[in-house]
Amino acid sequence: MRLRLPRLLLGLTCLLIAVWLVAPTLVVIPMSFADKKSLAFPPTGFSLQWYENFFTNPQWFGSLVTSAKVAVMVALVATVIGTMAAIGIERMKSRTGGLIRAVLITPMIVPGVVLAVGVYAVYLDTQLVGTWAGYVLAHTLLAIPFVVIAVGANLAVFDARLETAAASLGASRLKTFFTITLPLILPGILSGALFAFVTSFDEVIVSLFITSPQLKTLPVQIFSSMTRDADPTVAAVGSLIFMATSLIIGLGLIFGTRRRGA
Amino acid sequence: MASDTARPPWRGPFLLTLPALAVLLLVMAVPLGVIVLRSFTDPAPGVGNYVWFFDTPVNLTVLARTFKISFWVTLCCVVVAYPYAFAMSVAGPRLRLLLILCVLVPFWVSGVVRTLAWVILLQDSGVINKGLVWLGFDKVKLIRTQLGVTIGMTQVLLPFMIMPLYAVMRGIDLRLLQAARSLGAHPVKTFFQIYLPLSLPGVFAGATIVFILALGFYITPLLLGGPQSTMLSTLIQQQVLSLLNWGRGGAMGVVLLVATFGFLAVASPFMRQKYKISGGGR
């Protein structure tokens, strides 16, 4: 076959790119077991002290709890608001719908620091700096685009005639929504919720501006630790996040394809 | 039950979008409005902050550098993502799943953690330099250089290039290539006349997103970069948090906003354009 050489080259190139995508992140795993307080590679010795530090030091563990709580609240609020908006946009089927959709996606495009400075200015005036409400509000803004896109994509393939059928058989609007529409767009809503959770859990730029020593999220804690000193605890956190993420995505992909394949 | 065959037209759709729009107004529109306002009023009304911005050589250097780094990052992303997305679009289901996994895992692991990994790799006593010394080469200065920032940013932004490219390539009918080949076209000619034009909307979509995100990048340049690779975002943060100069920081923010949305306005027509296969005329 004449195609063999190009195919081999393509395969090799992709292998290199895949390694380049994944491998750099893997480097945090050996670093997390270092026995000295240093981020020099390769680490010497073996210890679990950085994992212990992460789970026992209130600075670290407290920020994890804060991040998890904020992310759960954001996932709830952004998913409800974003799903409502996506349904509204789908029903408009007009220029207004497209316009509102474009507007709702802008938080993804606005440069993070510009948004952060503005939010900080407003929060200083409204005493929202370093508060739960402050974090949830700002992260919800950043999560809404993901929910609108995920639910919107699901609604686009949803057969609206099913609703008409339900209505013609006498179901009320609410009943139609909860028994017909909601179950059918649930995959979109769930993936939107997951995106919203991760967006909030990872958000660092706006959080850096609106943080306070009393209420800090995990990315802020990681960032300040990295700029302060070479503490391998960041590598331990990184490894935990990496493993949790791989597990969730791996399971999601496996079950997602299995269901579609069935 | 009351008959509901004659329901009044439902005016709900717009109301449904109101909560989301309210969040946008409160946490995005008002804050950005405050920035624009301060850039014109703080410390004195007028365009003084903008005059200062465009009169200070350092600012112009950083602005030019921001565009330059973003351009290189975008170019690197296109070059790296193109073969990868192509392989994704032609691979069998199992291999495709693996390739997608390799894109998604780094995409979902937080940017801060990935930047930390790059710090470990690129630092003077880092993995790459240790490897170079081991192979008998000299150490290369990577951290706190533009090269290091470009490498790190390209890896962080690559998924944003691969996904739209893959979405477009998946829809390309590969039989067109077979048809061209069977009519005697050389593979290289087939690629440039048929495949490349059909995949261009994906290239434009991905490149636009990567370029826009790169313009506003903050964490990666801050942690991987040094004084010689400062980008506009870092300068804005310094003005506001270190110098407490809201007016100047605001003016810089407006410049970055205008650059971002200006570029988006220029680029968006290209993303939607459908490319016809030219019949040999071009």
Structure in a nutshell:
With 262 residues, chain A is mainly alpha-helical. Helix content of chain A is 78%, strand content 0%. The mean pLDDT of chain A is 88.
Task: Report on this structure.
The complex is a heterodimer of chains A (262) and B (282). Chain A has twelve helices and no strands. Chain A has helices at residues 4-26, 28-31, 49-56, 58-92, 95-105, 112-126, 132-156, 161-168, 173-202, 205-210, 218-228, 233-261. In chain B, 76% of the residues lie in helices and 0% in strands. In chain B, helix 2 (48-55) crosses helix 12 (246-272) and helix 11 runs antiparallel to helix 12 (246-272). Chain B is globular. At the A-B interface, helix 1, helix 4, helix 5, helix 6 and helix 7 of A face helix 1, helix 3, helix 4, helix 5 and helix 7 of B.
Please outline the helices and strands.
The complex is a heterodimer of chains A (262) and B (282).
Chain A: H1 4-26, H2 28-31, H3 49-56, H4 58-92, H5 95-105, H6 112-126, H7 132-156, H8 161-168, H9 173-202, H10 205-210, H11 218-228, H12 233-261
Helix pairs in contact in A: 3-4, 3-12, 4-5, 4-7, 4-9, 4-11, 7-9, 8-9
Chain B: H1 12-41, H2 48-55, H3 57-90, H4 93-108, H5 111-122, H6 127-134, H7 146-170, H8 175-182, H9 187-215, H10 219-224, H11 232-242, H12 246-272
Helix pairs in contact in B: 1-12, 2-12, 3-4, 3-7, 3-9, 4-7, 7-9, 8-9, 9-12, 11-12
Count of spatially separate domains of chain B: 1
**Could you describe the largest sheet of chain B, including whether it forms a barrel?**
none
Oligomer: heterodimer
Alpha-carbon distance between the two ends of chain A: 36 Å
Can you count the helices of chain A? 12
In CATH, what is the class of one domain in chain A?
Mainly Alpha
* SS class of chain A: mainly alpha
Rg of chain A is 23 Å
CATH superfamily heading of chain B? MetI-like
Name the helix and strand elements of chain A from N-terminus to C-terminus, one letter apiece.
Answer: HHHHHHHHHHHH
The average pLDDT of chain A is: 88
The percentage of residues in β strands of chain B lies in under 5%
| Beta strand % of chain A | under 5%
What can be said about the biggest beta sheet of chain A?
none
Q: Given the helix and strand composition of chain B, which structural class is it?
A: mainly alpha
* CATH homolog superfamily of one domain in chain A: MetI-like
